[in-house]
Amino acid sequence: MEFNPNAKLDSSQLQPSAGGGGGGGVALGGGLGLIVMILGLIFGFNPGDLLGNMPSSADNTSQSTNQYEHCQSGADIQADRECRWVAYVNSVQGYWNTQFQQGQYQAAATVPFTGSVNTACGTANSQVGPFYCPADQKVYVDTEFVNQLLQQLGAQGGEAAEAYIIAHEYGHHIQTLTGRLQKVQSAGNQTGPESPQVRLELQADCYAGVWFKNAVQDPTGIISGVTQDDLNRIADAAASVGDDRIQQSTAGQVTPESWTHGSAKMRQNWLGKGFTTGDPNVCEQAFTSENLEA
């Protein structure tokens, strides 16, 4: 990805991790998150032991200051690559702000952490992967662990893959603002290829694709170019976190009835629908389509 050195960065959209937390709500992943949930369904352990129900006294590496405070412009990314996380978040939120009536978009902070973190959805560790907590409307990501996790799943990784993960998690935030996420959660934990939970994740993938299509034109002007290699990497990342790929690599078998995120083909397809059209309204079809693989 190419960044505009003259674009301004807003580091306040990233917040230091802190203690606290609790047990309200269920965290949503998808870029890589809820891998533990999938494995729990396969092997029969309680995913809540690692996400959502851990005591708030669990170990947590917290920060009292914003480590990205020095990230003020696109040029700072060249001096410190960590500033790219600010660019991803700013660009994604800059785009979605234009899709709501003036003043209606509610910004959501991203919280970088290392090791483990306390949230309004409970305590989670790095192994869970990036996730969105609807209870506090924040995205949580262990930035140091992301590429390692991508490599473990067989993905190429890189900046575009990281940006896809962030865009997917903010897709869940959009679902919170529209009320879609609350409707799915109120229906209970349903799994399977056609389940509301899978449709929720595919819509978030579609939203991620929409952002990629519009990233260069978003008002922040932070992303100045998206290459074919970038597109290849986001498609590769989407496939690598398909339920079938993860189940095959971890358990040696595929059990569609336990899917929570969709197959590799599904995830690539819906990411592609978003990118091809650049229209977030198309993503609503994830809840009306009879064939999610088409």
Tell me what the structure shows.
The protein is mainly alpha-helical. The protein has one domain (2-287). 40% of the residues lie in helices and 8% in strands. It has 10 helices and 7 strands. The protein has helices at residues 35-43, 75-79, 84-97, 146-152, 159-178, 180-186, 196-214, 228-240, 243-251, 264-277; strands at residues 2-3, 110-112, 116-119, 122-125, 131-133, 138-141, 223-225. It has a 3-stranded mixed β-sheet with strand order 2-6-5, covered by helices on one side. The protein has a two-stranded antiparallel sheet with strand order 1-7. Strand 3 (116-119) and strand 4 form a beta hairpin. The longest helix has 20 residues, at 159-178.
Q: Major sheet: size, sense and barrel closure?
A: 3 strands, mixed
Count the DSSP helices.
Answer: 10
Q: What is the ordering of alpha helices and beta strands? A: EHHHEEEEEHHHHEHHH
* Integer tally of domains: 1
Q: Whole-Å distance between the termini?
A: 29 Å
Runs in which pLDDT lies below 50 for 5 or more consecutive residues are 19-24, 31-62
Helix percent reads: 25-40%
